[in-house]
Amino acid sequence: xxxxxxxxxxxxxxxxxxxxxxxxxxxxxxxxxxxxxxxxxxxxxxxxxxxxxxxxxxxxxxxxxxxxxxxxxxxxxxxxxxxxxxxxxxxxxxxxxxxxxxxxxxxxxxxxxxxxxxxxxxxxxxxxxxxxxxxxxxxxxxxxxxxxxxxxxxxxxxxxxxxxxxxxxxxxxxxxxxxxxxxxxxxxxxxxxxxxxxxxxxxxxxxxxxxxxxxxxxxxxxxxxxxxxxxxxxxxxxxxxxxxxxxxxxxxxxxxxxxxxxxxxxxxxxxxxxxxxxxxxxxxxxxxxxxxxxxxxxxxxxxxxxxxxxxxxxxxxxxxxxxxxxxxxxxxxxxxxxxxxxxxxxxxxxxxxxxxxxxxxxxxxxxxxxxxxxxxxxxxxxxxxxxxxxxxxxxxxxxxxxxxxxxxxxxxxxxxxxxxxxxxxxxxxxxxxxxxxxxxxxxxxxxxxxxxxxxxxxxxxxxxxxxxxxxxxxxxxxxxxxxxxxxxxxxxxxxxxxxxxxxxxxxxxxxxxxxxxxxxxxxxxxxxxxxxxxxxxxxxxxxxxxxxxxx
Length: 551
Hints:
Elements: H1 2-16, H2 30-38, H3 51-62, H4 64-74, H5 82-89, H6 100-111, E1 120-123, E2 129-130, E3 134-141, E4 150-157, H7 162-180, H8 185-188, H9 190-203, H10 207-220, E5 227-228, E6 241-245, E7 250-251, H11 255-260, H12 265-283, E8 285-287, E9 295-297, E10 307-309, E11 315-317, H13 320-334, H14 338-347, H15 357-368, H16 381-394, H17 404-420, H18 426-442, H19 444-461, H20 465-477, H21 479-521, H22 526-550
Parallel strand pairs: 5-10
Antiparallel strand pairs: 1-3, 2-3, 3-4, 4-6, 7-9, 8-11, 9-10
Helix pairs in contact: 1-7, 3-4, 3-5, 4-5, 7-9, 12-17, 12-18, 13-14, 13-18, 14-15, 15-16, 18-19, 21-22
């Protein structure tokens, strides 16, 4: 019933806010045209309201899952009109707020205090930002008496949103199940992808987890000139409240302000790419929600700009195998070694082993060759991904759920790059970093690093080596006896197996003989009774023959 209720609400929002007007008339499905015609009487918002505004408000009404979709779309200015992109950008930090009284009550309950003044010497009633999952207020914190208060922000989870998210995820799982039952649906692994998204978005509701993520990311970039992560106060963080250092910077989406203060946009765009690849390949721990609302630029040194990252609810991770295959794939792409790309896809198991590698190489070349040696304003990763999905359909490549967050983050990086410095050559910026990383993982450096890390363990085990060697040689000398014991165990096992088959056969034959006698005995004709006895006797004789063979 909850699923049907949610579907009805989605249909209501779709009709009320005239979202069907966003679809070009020549591409509108006939079924949708029929539905809109039949519901001509349905109450709708004013025609005077722009469709871009309607879409933003509709996504807000549908809740966090849909707001996240709008946030991702807002970075794709190449796919959307200027007005539509501008409206969706408001979803990043301008969602309709909820009452401050509820915020204060939640903070007091979570921190187990009677009043905010017990911990904070100042609290701002007006929220700084209102996002899809939480609301943010400014405050001042007095940790040490006699010292100046510390300016912080308090992030509080929106009330009663978990049930709404679970409802939407259930709906997505239902549709994913339908997709999985289609002819080629198994390749997309839609159910696994939705389950991965469910895990991610539910983790985002746990601010204690976000605090731990932020602390880890801050440690990873402690001495970085590229990225600054604000300090988090874990003693004041719970599952619904997070307290963090307040930062002051220019939103990365405010290009005019960055230009006005003289920021080096080319360097900023290149650093953005470097930050992304550093997180993925050096740390295997990356910020997977890099929409413009979560990224700011420091104001202190415009000629040497540094990013400031916030909101660590969605973080991605990669295992060593996926990370290595990805890095080798990127390097092979940069070098246009499409045969190597095809081979890596087979080796990693992303493509079945029976696929013709040479044909796969030709297909990849057709998709990727056109995008090289072009500035970012002339190419689109979205188009490349669509082309690769078409190629995947031909070569049975399955969707990898663990890479979905990485793909989404890469699209965010592309959107930011377009906005800051459209002429950025993403390939040439990333190539040296990835080549160095692959060399460190696979070359002499990797051998030296591994040996250095394992040396203490080897030294610890060194005194045991003579004893281990003696034991190994002794076992080797006893191999003939060991082999004989194994053979005897095997023969004994086979003998037990034959006995089991014999018992099963005799039981079955006895049951069949009894059944035959019972059937024919009920017939009045004595000839049939004799025939039944003879048939049962033959069955028993055959059972004895089987027993003699098995024995």
